[in-house]
Amino acid sequence: MSGRLGDLAASALLLALAGATCVGSWRLGLGDVHNPGPGFMPLAAAALLGLMALGQLVRLAAHPRGAATGAFAQSRWGALAIVLGSIAAFGALIDTLGFAPSTFLMLSVLFGAIARKRWWVTLAAALAIALVASVAFRALGLQLPPGPLGL
Amino acid sequence: MDTFHAIALGLGVALQPLNLFFCFVGVFVGTLIGVLPGIGPVGTMSLLLPITFHLSPVGAIIMLAGIYYGAQYGGSTTSILVNIPGEASSIVTCLDGYQMARNGRAGPALGMAALGSFIGGSVAIVGLMLLAVPLAEAALSFGPPEYFALMCVSLVVLTFLSRGSMGKSLMMGVLGLLLSFVGLDMFTSVPRFTFGVNELSDGIGLIPLVMGLFGVAEILLNLEGEMKREIYATRLGEILPTARDWVAARWSIVRGTVIGFFLGILPGGGAVLASFVSYAVERRLSRHPERFGTGVIEGVAGPETANNAAAQSSFIPLLALGIPPNVVRAVLFGGLLIHGIQPGPLVMQQRPDLFWGVVMSMFVGNAMLLALNLPLVGMWVRLLRVPYDVLFPLILLFCAIGVYSVNNSRTDVYLMVLFGLVGYLMQKLGYEPAPLALAYVLGPILETALRQSLALSGGSLSIFVTRPISAASMLLVVVLLIVQLFSRRSSPKETT
């Protein structure tokens, strides 16, 4: 995706977000200037955002020459998905499995798939860090879910 | 309370063994994350915020403050030895610091960076003590219109000083405001934009937002580059600068202190801006500007002094007015709120132990940093050899634990993931996250001040132009916007 296309997409997204927020704010109730309602400030801010996003869209349309280099040329989408997915999985599993097992799984994925360590190094490092972190953070007073293994 | 008693009170608090320990932990962790590229003070402070729930408010703030100014010291080590800035405020130190290392003068460069930081930081603390009290007393007479106008100034100056397009920065500021409106309306308790999710009733948490935008997004960006880095093979040699170095750098240190102090107070300013301005000034005033970039000590002394002076003086608007001038201070603002302390002019009256304890702890912390950064520099160099592909999973783990443990909420972890992706996309497309985060923190105060002002004036907007301070502030906002609209900036600038 070129820098210009990215800017167009971002402006369109911000414009859509501003439009939706304006509608939502209107439904919340605007009140009046003596006693502004819950939708007053969100509507004002969303309208401002919408105007600026629209201005940027118009400016981009008026100057069709954009940056030739791709904004995402160096992006590693696979790695990005794995990193974000592993953190989300940590969040999804921590209450069920407990802190240490979900930490072990997250670190195994990160060390194995992104850092590309050997499998035994990956598993040993993930296990050791999960156990040490479990003990250390509990000692610091954090309330972490123990899960069925009590870890 | 007179200044003498206030200082005695502050020293009494700062020198308590437990507070000394928290101060040491703060500056140690600050130096550590300053040395290590890939995680900054914003992410680290957010990460440690949940742990501070179990500490006293004074200890917690002493520790969190130490992280920020400690990071300014640590960032220079990486810049000088590896040519990679550990912190954004140390970017310009690479220019001459690394060249000094290549010329076999890494020791004096590191020594001058640490000593300059110490001098700049110490002088700025004295300035903080002198300026914060009268400013806070003046702020007691401020009403909602003044606060609304000052916060508008803060937001506009931040976008004015941002690196890229002002339009994009303004949009991010407004987006931050919109995000701050999520949750129950504070006047009517009507849920706003919660989409039926109970966890959003209290709004989007500051920690998931900041950790996502600054912590996770930074790692996603770093994963695109080469994971290996090489430390420049050099002998540190004599760590203390020579008499000739001191003569060459003496005015750079003085100017760096003054520049850093005033740019730190400025809303939207901070350590990054101060270091860039200081370098530009030193080069402009030098008799040999062509030698900058080849390893001149003034190119290290000025910016390093300035960034630490700014790190200290940026406490003034936070503690005296209750307005965080940059995103790092916004996290500290959140920390104070979590501990039940409303930052602002009343802090000095209601919690003098906190205000003066934190201020005096900065003196202690700066002395600790000198000891940590001069004799122990070899330890930090060895730490740089830890590969990034080992570090980043650990940083992500700390982020996940930090976010989850605030409310034991998986929703917060998902929000961090979402903001990590948003932050990554924003930075790839040239949208800065700092205005968004600062506006997010200022949003509730801004809205309260506006609605209270309108209630006071019976719905008339003239209240903002009939009171001197708010009128001057609004005028400044208009001038800044007009200047920016009609001028084309010739060089990119940095902000925190």
Please identify the structural class of chain A as seen in this structure: mainly alpha
Q: Multimeric state of these chains?
A: heterodimer
Major sheet description of chain A = none
**What value does the average pLDDT of chain A take?**
87
Gyration radius of chain B (Cα, Å) is: 22 Å
Descriptive keywords:
heterodimer, A: 151 residues, mainly alpha, 5 helices, flat, B: 496 residues, 2 strands, 71% helix, globular, disordered C terminus
Write a short abstract of this structure:
Chain A is mainly alpha-helical. Chain A has helices spanning 3-28, 40-62, 77-97, 99-114, 119-139. Helix content of chain B is 71%, strand content 1%.
What does this structure look like?
- The complex is a heterodimer of chains A (151) and B (496).
- By secondary structure, chain A is mainly alpha-helical.
- Helix content of chain A is 71%, strand content 0%.
- In chain A, helix 1 runs antiparallel to helix 2 (40-62) and helix 3 packs antiparallel against helix 4 (99-114).
- Chain B is built from 22 helices and two strands.
- A two-stranded antiparallel ribbon of chain B has the order 1-2.
- The model of chain B is unreliable at 489-496 (pLDDT under 50).
- Chain B is globular, with a radius of gyration of 22 Å.
- Chain B is an all-alpha fold.
- At the A-B interface, helix 1, helix 2, helix 3, helix 4 and helix 5 of A face helix 8, helix 9, helix 18, helix 19 and helix 20 of B.
SSE order and pairing:
The complex is a heterodimer of chains A (151) and B (496).
Chain A: H1 3-28, H2 40-62, H3 77-97, H4 99-114, H5 119-139
Chain B: H1 3-14, H2 17-35, H3 41-48, H4 57-82, H5 93-102, H6 106-139, H7 144-160, H8 166-180, E1 183-184, E2 191-192, H9 206-222, H10 243-265, H11 271-285, H12 298-313, H13 315-321, H14 327-338, H15 347-350, H16 352-373, H17 377-383, H18 388-407, H19 410-428, H20 433-457, H21 463-466, H22 468-486
Antiparallel strand pairs in B: 1-2
Helix pairs in contact in B: 1-16, 2-4, 2-16, 3-4, 3-9, 3-14, 3-18, 4-5, 4-6, 4-12, 4-14, 4-16, 5-6, 5-12, 6-10, 6-12, 6-13, 6-16, 7-8, 7-20, 7-22, 8-20, 9-18, 9-19, 9-20, 10-11, 10-12, 11-12, 14-20, 18-19
